[in-house]
Amino acid sequence: MTKFNATVTTVILNGEAIELKDRIEFNGVDHGFIDYLAGSCRLVARKLFEGAQDPAGTYTLHYETQVTDAATGAPAMKLPKITNMGMTRPQVFAFLRLAMIELAGVNDLRYGEFSECRSDE
């Protein structure tokens, strides 16, 4: 069975200054995981573009997911790079909240439900 590596990169600029730069790598994942991740990326993109650009918004978001074959490093899936300009601070926080929810879903898929691995139970 083919395994994949996926890298999700997020950069948030306030004007020209980098305010947040995040890179998450998932290594040795299967096709089901990649399908879920691609769906998550489409959901995030759809939600981003539902919010209108604000002339007063000073934030720009760059969001990209790359998927490669784990054995060869060759590109395995083409997902568009998303750039959303003219975001306000509340829109940035809304994106970050959605991204955390989606990350929780990805982690549940890969590692099992959070409740199964809580240390306080």
Q: What is the number of helices?
A: 2
Q: Provide the gyration radius in Å.
A: 16 Å
Helix vs. strand class: alpha+beta
Mean pLDDT figure: 85
Termini separation comes to 35 Å
Helical residue percent band: 25-40%
Low-confidence stretches: 115-121
The counted number of beta strands is 5
Question: Which of globular, elongated, flat, extended, rod-shaped describes the shape?
Answer: elongated
Proportion of residues in β-strands: 35-45%
Characterize the main sheet.
Answer: 5 strands, antiparallel
* Oligomerization: single chain
Order of helices and strands: EEHEEEH
Give me some keywords for this one.
single chain, 121 residues, alpha+beta, 5-stranded antiparallel sheet, 36% helix, elongated
Outline the structure in words.
The chain has 121 residues and is α+β, with helices and mostly antiparallel strands. Mean pLDDT is 85; it is low at 115-121. The protein has helices at 31-50, 89-111; strands at 4-14, 17-29, 59-69, 75-77, 82-87. Strands 1, 2, 3, 4 and 5 form a 5-stranded antiparallel β-sheet that branches. Helices cover 36% and strands 36% of the residues. The protein is built from 2 helices and 5 strands.
Short description:
The chain is of the alpha+beta class. The protein has helices spanning 31-50, 89-111, and strands at residues 4-14, 17-29, 59-69, 75-77, 82-87.
